[in-house]
Amino acid sequence: MGWPPGPYEASTYTSAIPSPAEGNILVKYRPAPNYLPPLALSDPFNRSAPPGLPGETVVRSILEDRTLTTGILLALLIVFAVSYARSPWRKLPPSPRRTPIIGNSLQLSDLHWLISKDCKDRFGEVMYLDAAGSPTVVLNSLKPAVELLERRSNNYSDRPRLIMAQEILSKGLVMGFMSYTASWRRQRRAAQAALSKEAVQEYYPVLTKEATVLVSALLTNSSSSDRTKHFQRAATSAIMSILYDYPTLISGQDTAIKGIHNYNQRVEYAATPGSFLVESFPWMMYIPQRFAKWKREGLQQAAEHQEMFLRLLNRVRGDLVSGGTRPSISASLILGADCNLLAEAEMAFLAGSMHSAGSGTIVSVLNWWTVAMVAFPEAQRRAQAELDIVVGRDRFPTFSDSPHLPYIHALVKETLRWRPAAPFGVPHVATREDWYEGMYIPKGTACMANIWQCNHDPAVFGDDADEFRPERFLDERGELDPNQEGYYTYGFGRRNCVGKLLANDSLFLYVARTLWAVNLERVRDESGNEVMPDTDTLVGPGPFIHPAPFDCKVTPRFPELTSLLAEERDSWGV
Ligand code: HEM
Q1: In a 3-state reduction of DSSP, which class is residue 452?
Q2: Closest approach atom of ligand 1 to CA 421
Q3: Is the predicted pLDDT of residue 496 greater than 90, yes or no?
Q4: Nearest CA to ligand 1 atom 20
Q5: For 531-564, what is each residue's pLDDT tens digit?
Q6: What is the DSSP letter of 467?
Q7: Residue 21: pLDDT over 70
Q8: Which pLDDT score, from 0 to 100, does residue 559 have?
Q9: Percent of the chain, pLDDT > 90?
Q10: What 8-state DSSP symbol labels residue 526?
Q11: ipTM attached to this prediction
Q12: Which helix (H) or strand (E) holds 572?
């Protein structure tokens, strides 16, 4: 059968378990009677070894052989020397780069192939691959994703071990990376309370203020890079206020949040496969700090991170004591400390780590939404017609208009479905071995929902699944169909996105206020032809996908906008 069509990293597809039927990519297999699951092979006390050859005996006989022992020691020394000399911290990029994912050696380098129809058609609904040494099952359609990650979520709610990003840099305290433990349950309960429907309503003033500043910024300057910066500023400023009751930020790169950006960058880098040898050789974790620069520096950084997050938390605590604080996630965690039983450091990392989850995703969705508005102007016109009827032209839309703006909600849903910000979500890990339709899933296998394929499944969304068509979420009366959430962008089961209510509300208001105020139009080239934005290129790197940069024209929809905007900004003091 050969390799799948590129571009891709060939090594990624080297299957650990050769399948006679399908070459190196394992699509569907039953273990042979003597089959040892791949994880057992790396188990020094090979508990699955055939009777008569216990793993312990093998290990002991190896250690008794002097030549072998010397060889092993030499190999360890070389590995250690290489890891020391490479000192990965020196490679930390100074700022995030935006380069196409295609051909990039990051974990998403295979994205174009994994989201193609070819992948699903050739390798089916459940596909096995060896992702940089980790056995991984990719769930290419809704049926297995729902069956495994939702219905059997008691077995599929663990996460892969991330030594550098989680255990060292984050002191093991970031909820999104945590194993499925009692500690995760406590953090999850506290996060759910701080991001419940009622709690999110408390953040409406922050979101309204940020949406107003966003409109104003888009009108002032809307070149491609500026537009993304405006989205970044709005999302970062909103999440900082929601997390820590922080004042409105002037720019997305405000020095006040430089520390959090550094943390996000380090964690993102550390979580990228291949960044640190310790991920492949976990025993390196036990090398004393003074012989391992990467570990020493990592632990120093972790102490800085903890101190920074504690400082931010304590700032809110101080305001709570003086009675001058407004609702925030930190305030909710501090006030709920008696019930949520979280230690200070747990609260500090829980709040701090939500910064990236809650801002990078929103920027990705807003970028894709702009592409959609420019590429499909009829959707923009229909949304504006709805806003004109419901809101009129003498005030900005607000959250109280939400129940009367079904098309705006459908627009947001369709953007989330059409171009999911994190097309593979975050891997879930099987706690125990399992079977799915005759396929064996060893304990410890990472299961990745191919959210892109689930969102584009013709069996669920029809033959026009690849098109941008917000109407698909409306019934014949033009109302939102209450029976279906309709997309899978927020993941599955017990580990699904805890911030989805906040995300949906934020996106609703950003979209409603922007479309009420401005037209987003195609620019023209030198020959006077309209330039259509590229709807298909996905840009990384990083955990979230973005469109290729494109220019669009942002113009006010009516002359009174300038004075209405000035009034609105005055009323918010921004
Ligand atoms: C459009 C915006 C967003 C998208 C597309 C998104 C997507 C996701 C996805 C796919 C996951 C993994 C789900 C899984 O494992 O099955 C996730 C987890 C998570 N998200 Fe979001 N998210 C968004 C916004 C937010 C916001 C606003 C917050 C918080 C303020 C947030 C906090 C989290 C956290 C803490 C987790 C980890 C949950 C756990 O492991 O238990 N997200 N998100």
Answers
A1: helix
A2: 5
A3: yes
A4: 497
A5: 999 999 888 767 789 999 999 999 999 999 999 9
A6: S
A7: no
A8: 94
A9: 65
A10: T
A11: 0.99
A12: helix 561-572
Per-residue confidence (pLDDT) for residue 81, from 0 to 100: 57
The pocket around ligand 1, CB under 6 angstroms, is made up of 175-176, 188, 191, 354, 357-358, 361-362, 365, 421-422, 425-426, 428, 489-492, 495-499, 502-503
Separation of CA 65 and ligand 1 centre (Å): 51
Interval 395-413 mean pLDDT: 97
Q: Whose CA is closest to atom 31 on ligand 1?
A: 499
pLDDT for residue 15:
28
Ligand 1 mutation pick, 350, 497, 504, 508, max ligand atoms within 8 A of CB = 497
| DSSP assignment of 136-174 | EEEE-SHHHHIIIIIITTTTS-B----IIIIIITTTT--
Q: How far is the CA of 356 from the centre of ligand 1 (A)?
A: 10
pLDDT digits 0-9 by tens, 54-109 = 333 333 443 445 666 676 677 776 665 555 444 333 333 333 322 222 222 234 45
**Alpha-carbon distances, residue 537 vs 249, 340, 449, 530 (angstroms):** 31, 43, 21, 19
Which pair of structure tokens corresponds to residue 454? 């689930």
Expressed in angstroms and rounded, the spacing between residue 357 Cα and the centre of ligand 1 is 6
Provide the b/e sequence for 525-552 (b: ≥16 CB within 10 Å): eeeeeeeebebebbbbbbbbbbbbbbeb
Q: Flag whether 497 is marked binding.
A: yes
With beta carbons less than 8 A apart as the criterion, state whether 130 and 15 touch: yes
- What are the distances in angstroms from CA 85 to CA 163, 273, 376? 20, 19, 52
The arithmetic mean of pLDDT across residues 335-361, rounded, is 93
Two tokens at 330? 């930190």
Residue whose CB lies within 8 A of the most ligand 1 atoms, among 356, 415, 490, for a mutation test: 490
At position 384, the amino acid (one-letter code) is Q
Whole-number Å distance, alpha carbon 183 to ligand 1 midpoint, is 18
- What separation in Å is there between the alpha carbon of 429 and the centre of ligand 1? 17
Helix axes 293-322, 66-86, angle to 10 degrees: 50
